[in-house]
Design brief:
Elements lengths: L3 E6 L9 H10 L5 E7 L15 E3 L6 H14 L4 E4 L7 H9 L2 E6 L6 H9 L2 E4 L4 H5 L9 E3 L20 E6 L8 H8 L6 E6 L4 H13 L6 E3 L8 H4 L5 E4 L8 H8 L4 E4 L4 H6 L4 E4 L4 H12 L2 H18 L2 H15 L2
Parallel strand pairs: 1-2, 1-4, 2-3, 4-5, 5-6, 6-7, 8-9, 8-11, 9-10, 11-12, 12-13
């Protein structure tokens, strides 16, 4: 029997947040059944070295719809693609149209809380839709036109990479947040909480910075004389996260909106307890199964109280750490995610 050819599309491997999820799929999918390829729009130099030259394609969308559709259709035909799985976070329905013309099954993973008429069109043109936040089912896909072709597939963590390492001794209580430093990630909320927390609690921030937002943070830090308690470390390579977490005690995420926050999954897998805002339901879904608590963005004292509760109780820290790792192994392993997608691919190519 010939293998099922799958084309994964993603904007690039430089800025796209879904790159790590896609790479887990690509590296672990059953190669006896599936033959995977990747299509990027730009930055070919950022493609990981273990992806072979004959496994990737570059296609740049020009904005000329008719021309783009025909050119992309030709790629699908030339490579004899059976299924296209899109990891493009945008509401780009053009690739879905090209798949219709080429007779290729089109699947996309919904991983943000945006919605529009173009998202609806993209969804109507899709053969199947995966979503990673359980609340998306009623938020976006309750229509009779869509609900028959959806699957809830939460992200998984590769526990061979994300695992607890021998901790490095430190005298402070180190809180960490990993993610783009900008309005949506809302790091200012965490920094404001420091004013009402013991001085031994230190915040470490990792991520690419929005310059205007960083200035807002710097102004607040200087005004409140807490410069020694907030440390900016810049961008953090995904594979180095477990090494960094050896010196950390707690992970905090204060985002306004997330799909299913992979950063929380990675922290739990590395043995860190987690405090998070609700951020659209995904964080609540993860932590309802163990490993941390949700705090209320409308109540600043909620984070302060929860942080004190954890930081002053070593037994509680240990319990949450164990619970979090059990949660990942039971509910959010990369093996579970890959198996779920393989079933969707097979179902759509029968």
């Amino acid at each position: 029997m010939s293998k099922i050819k799958i084309l994964y599309t993603i904007p690039n491997f430089k800025t796209a947040g879904s790159q790590y999820v896609l790479l887990s799929l690509l590296r672990n999918i059953d190669r006896d059944i599936f033959d995977p390829y990747i299509c990027i729009e730009k930055f070919p130099e950022a493609i990981p070295t273990d992806i072979l030259d004959n496994e990737w394609i570059q296609f740049t969308w020009t904005g000329k719809k008719s021309s783009d559709i025909l050119k992309f259709r030709k790629i699908l035909k030339d490579y004899k693609i059976d299924v296209l799985h899109s990891w493009d976070y945008k509401s780009n329905y053009i690739e879905a149209l090209a798949c219709r013309l080429a007779g290729v099954k089109y699947l996309y993973t919904k991983k943000n809380n945006a919605w529009s008429k173009r998202w609806m069109l993209k969804s109507l043109l899709s053969s199947h839709i995966a979503y990673d936040n359980p609340e998306m089912k009623t938020r976006f896909f309750k229509s009779m036109l869509l609900r028959h072709k959806i699957s809830f597939i939460p992200h998984g963590v590769d526990t061979k990479v994300f695992k607890p390492l021998e901790p490095i001794e430190h005298t402070t209580f180190n809180v960490v947040c990993v993610g783009n430093i900008g309005d949506n990630k809302n790091q200012l909320f965490i920094i404001k909480a420091l004013k009402n927390l013991p001085h031994n609690i230190i915040l470490h921030l990792y991520g690419k910075e929005d310059k205007e937002y960083r200035k807002k943070l710097d102004d607040f830090i200087e005004l409140n004389n807490i410069k020694e308690r907030v440390h900016f470390h810049g961008f953090l390579e995904n594979v180095t996260i477990p090494q960094v977490y050896r010196e950390m005690d707690l992970f905090v995420l204060a985002s306004y909106q997330e799909g299913l926050p992979v950063s929380i999954l990675e922290a739990l897998a590395c043995g860190l307890p987690v405090l998070s805002s609700d951020s659209g339901g995904g964080a609540r879904y993860i932590l309802s199964k163990g490993g941390g608590y949700i705090f209320d963005l409308d109540n600043p004292n909620s984070l302060v109280d929860n942080l004190k509760r954890v930081a002053t109780n070593k037994e509680e820290m240990k319990r949450l750490s164990i619970e979090g790792m059990k949660n990942i192994n039971a509910n959010f392993s990369v093996q579970n995610e890959i198996s779920s997608y393989e079933k969707v691919y097979l179902k759509n190519t029968k």
